[in-house]
Structure formats: structure tokens, C-alpha cells
TrEMBL record:
This is MEMO1 family protein. It holds the Pfam family Memo. Belongs to the MEMO1 family. Gene3D superfamilies: LigB-like. It comes from the Archaea. InterPro entries: MEMO1_fam. The lineage of its organism: Archaea, Nitrososphaerota, Nitrososphaeria, Nitrososphaerales, Nitrososphaeraceae.
Length: 287
């Protein structure tokens, strides 16, 4: 079965050539600054030493959050990796808890991407009965993982495979359990990247959004889950994927990556000038 691209022309262009041009423009924006090139070059030395890595990226429309995501994918471009786990929260509320795709391929205007059946089977085998569901409906209704695929495809990775995962339950116990499960299915000797996607503060004014976002980012880079949940507790209703961020922290800790670096942070107000009601976007790497 092939999951169709259902959200092109909403979050990113449907036309293949238009999409390629937009992605190229996003990467060109990242590389246009000498300061940014030096910054990413410094981090590149750290990430290339790691076999397993995790990134956090946003999932807004490319117009708003695309350049933030491009900071992460610019680093991923430097790595020899073709296995990706992509984790997001449940935006439609249809998942029974943790859902993974039952499809064999996912499509975008740039082509089809194969689902990693080996990691999927391993995840189902290692999880408790009914903890993780094969649930194509939830993953078909949700747009957030689909929006990551054109970025990955644009990197022209050979033998690319993905494992899409939706996390509905956002509590600390679920996040710890899921992070550990995901770390346990990494194929021996292979490079794997976990991409976890979440936007930050939603629909507050510009200054308040930055204030709260900075608190969230500060506690995220501490890599301390108790501290993270204490901070997020006040803002859980305005951050869509905090549990996914927590799962990524635990995943990273389990594989021995104990540091996090903010790559880029901005808001929709920085893009369109409307600062009365904004959404925060950030990209991070954990090394």
C-alpha cells in the first residue's frame, strides 16, 4: 500500500518543480550567511562522529517554518544516513496511543519513500501487546510527518527508508518508554537518524511567544526530563508535541548523546510581520 500525499498545496507545493525550487531557496537562505556556515560547520564535526543522532524540527507551512527545518536538514545532508525514524504527535486524536504506519511506501510530489519494514517489525515485536498499533488511518489524517519527507528526498539519499510514528500520549512515562523502545530497534552497525517534529508556542503575542519558547528550549537542552515536564506543565496546552520532544530526549540519552544544540529559532511573526498571534518554531540537534 502507498500513502498518498494529502497535504501538498496546503503546507508545501504540489508541483514537483515548484517544490524543488522552494526547497533550494530554503537551503540557499541557510547558506547565505557566513556566520551560519561557520556555525553549522562547527557542529558538523560533532555530528559526523555519531552513528545515531536525533533532531527536532517544526512542521508549519514551508513559508513560515521551512527555513528553520532547513538548518537541521543542512546538517543531515552532510551525513551518510539512509534510515530515518520520524516521530510526531497526534493532531487529530484518532490514535489509541502510539501508532505506526501499515503502508509500504509514502509518496510526495518528489516520488515514493520506502517504509523500513525491518525496524517496524522489530518495534512491534519488542513492544507490549496493544502498546503500539498498526494504524494507517491516524498517519493518513496527520500532516506533520508528510511535511518532512520532501526535505529528506531533496537530499538525494540512496536506498532511503523511513519509519513514521505518531505519539498521542504525551506523558512522561509514555515518552520514556517510547524513547527507549525506539533506541532498541537501531540495526547493528547502521546509521539512523530520529527526526522528531513539534511546533512550539501557539497563538500568543510575539514577545510572550519568545519568552515561553526560550523557557522550553532552555529546559530541552538541559536533557533533564523531570525539569522539562515541570516547565512544560504550564504550557502543555499550547505546545503540540512536547511528549515527542521528551521521547527524543530519552532516546538520545539511551544512545549516549547527552548534549542538545539549538540550530534556529524564530516565530511566524518574524516572517509575515503579524506579531499579535504567532507560532514558535525551532530546530535542534542532540549529540
Amino acid at each position: 500500500m502507498i500513502r498518498p500525499h494529502s497535504f501538498s498545496d496546503i503546507f508545501y507545493p504540489r508541483d514537483c518543480e515548484t517544490l524543488k525550487r522552494e526547497l533550494q531557496n530554503l537551503f540557499d537562505t541557510v547558506y547565505s550567511s557566513l556566520e551560519t556556515r561557520r556555525f553549522l560547520g562547527m557542529i558538523e564535526g560533532f555530528v559526523q562522529k555519531k552513528r545515531i543522532l536525533s533532531f527536532i524540527v517544526p512542521h508549519g507551512a514551508y513559508k513560515y517554518s521551512g527555513v528553520v527545518s532547513a538548518f537541521a536538514y543542512a546538517l543531515i545532508k552532510t551525513l551518510d544516513c539512509n534510515n530515518f525514524i520520524i516521530l510526531s504527535s497526534d493532531h487529530k486524536g484518532t490514535s489509541p496511543g502510539i501508532s505506526i504506519t501499515d503502508d509500504d511506501y509514502w509518496s510526495t510530489p518528489l516520488g515514493e519513500v520506502k517504509v523500513n519494514n525491518s525496524m517496524r517489525s522489530d518495534l512491534l515485536r519488542k513492544s507490549a501487546k496493544d502498546y503500539i498499533s498498526l494504524d494507517s488511518l491516524t498517519l493518513e489524517l496527520d500532516y506533520t510527518i508528510e511535511t518532512q519527507l520532501p526535505f529528506i528526498q531533496f537530499l538525494q539519499i540512496e536506498n532511503l527508508s523511513i519509519l513514521p510514528v505518531i505519539q498521542k500520549r504525551q506523558d512522561i512515562e509514555t515518552s520514556i518508554r517510547l524513547g527507549r523502545l525506539l533506541s532498541s530497534i537501531i540495526p547493528s552497525g547502521e546509521r539512523v537518524i530520529l527526526i522528531s517534529t513539534s511546533n512550539l508556542t501557539h497563538y500568543l503575542d510575539y514577545n510572550e511567544c519568545y519568552k515561553i519558547d526560550n523557557q522550553i528550549l532552555s529546559t530541552t537542552i538541559s536533557m533533564n526530563l523531570n525539569s522539562f515536564y515541570q516547565t512544560v506543565g504550564n504550557y502543555a496546552h499550547i505546545i503540540c508535541g512536547y511528549g515527542c520532544i521528551a521521547s527524543t530526549i530519552e532516546f538520545s540519552r539511551m544512545i549516549g548523546n547527552s548534549d542538545a544544540i539549538v540550530l534556529k529559532h524564530l516565530t511566524s511573526g518574524d516572517v509575515d510581520g503579524n506579531k499579535s498571534s504567532v507560532v514558535g518554531y525551532a530546530s535542534l540537534v542532540m549529540v
